[in-house]
Design goal:
The protein is α/β, with parallel strands linked by helices. 38% of the residues lie in helices and 18% in strands. It binds ligand PBG.
Length: 328
């Protein structure tokens, strides 16, 4: 007889016998409440444009965006993350348009909160869509300068809060921005406006399709002097802890799938919810393979999304949110 405590007394396959037993043994589950839906808004009326490198994903004018948001609400999804596409003639080095109280982002927040006051509305805070250089901060002599950019980003956060944003989501990776934003929000009376910080945002090629969506690719150079080096993980923990101390309410890791180890490390280091951004390039890869008939899209999506939960993510920003919600 073999030794109790090993095969055949112990058989892992007992827990995999059928769908119900596998469900009982599942360590992680996806919930609609996990998802943050990124949305692209553009100027104009009654128009939606498919993003070529993101099949099935669109930029909407505000009137149509509201209908899209309605669908999101009806599906039971709790939050959206807004990105505005800014026409070239409104871009400059200081991102002046970003502070326009009647700007597209501000109007979008107002319109969405008016129709759906309970929906969690998050806004992207970064200069790149507004910058003539396509960088996340102000450019001087070919450099992206930190402190002046931070002052501007803090004003941008206040402007979004004034419009009614529940959370501002700084994606710029300037140093000290969370503290400055928290200060500015408190001073202006926005105690309840939260900050979801892109704390560990890597200089990644997987943002390519997103930059097509917003026409926001850097005009010169790359973003490596502010976004993180893909080889680093200890540095991600440092950034995350700093942001937590500076007052971030949610800490994000971005991109997602190639950085699951970072999600785990950050989750273990902080005491606030951790979100992960399943970015545009990750979406595009699955879509492209599915279009070619090389992968089953729905299964690939579900497997990728549960991997985020397994890694420790509490929230997932994903272009698959609606599709996944329909399966849940
Ligand atoms: C820019 C920003 C980017 C994304 C979100 N905010 C791109 C970048 O840093 O160049 C990428 C999102 C995605 O790829 O889905 N501040």
């Amino acid at each position: 007889m073999s030794n109790p405590g090993s095969f055949p007394y112990i058989r892992g396959r007992r827990l995999r016998q059928n769908e119900n037993i596998r469900r009982m043994a599942a360590e992680h589950h996806l919930n609609k409440a996990d998802f943050i839906v990124p949305l692209f808004v553009m100027e104009g009326k009654n128009e939606k444009v498919e993003i070529p490198s993101m099949p099935g994903y669109y930029r909407y004018t505000l009137d149509l965006l509201i209908r899209e948001v309605e669908e999101i609400v009806l599906l039971g999804l709790p939050s959206v993350l807004l990105f505005a596409k800014v026409p070239d003639n409104k871009k400059d080095n200081e991102g002046t348009e970003a502070l326009n109280p009647k700007g597209l982002m501000q109007e979008s927040v107002r319109a969405i909160k008016k129709e759906f006051p309970e929906l969690g509305v998050m806004t992207d805070v970064a200069l790149d869509p507004y910058s003539s250089y396509g960088h996340d901060g102000i450019v001087r002599n070919g450099e992206i300068i930190n402190d002046e950019s931070v002052d501007l980003l803090a004003k941008m956060a206040v402007s979004h809060a004034e419009a009614g944003a529940d959370f501002v989501a700084p994606s710029d990776m300037m140093d000290g921005r969370i503290g400055s934003m928290r200060n500015a929000l408190e001073l202006e009376g926005f105690q309840n406006t939260g900050i979801m910080s892109y704390s560990a945002k890597y200089a990644s090629v997987f943002y390519g399709p997103f930059r097509d969506a917003l026409d926001s690719a850097p005009g010169f150079g790359d973003k490596k002097t502010y976004q993180m080096d893909p080889s680093n993980v200890i540095e991600a923990v440092r950034e995350a802890k700093l942001d937590e101390q500076e007052g971030a309410d949610i800490i994000m890791v971005k991109p997602g799938l190639p950085y699951l180890d970072v999600v785990r490390a950050v989750k273990q280091a902080v005491s606030v919810p951790v979100s992960v951004y399943n970015v545009s390039g990750e979406y595009a890869m699955i879509k492209a393979a599915a279009e070619k008939g090389w992968l089953d899209e729905k299964q690939a999506m579900a497997e990728a999304l549960i991997a985020f939960k397994r890694a420790g993510a509490d929230l997932i920003a994903t272009y698959f949110a609606k599709d996944m919600a329909r399966l849940l």
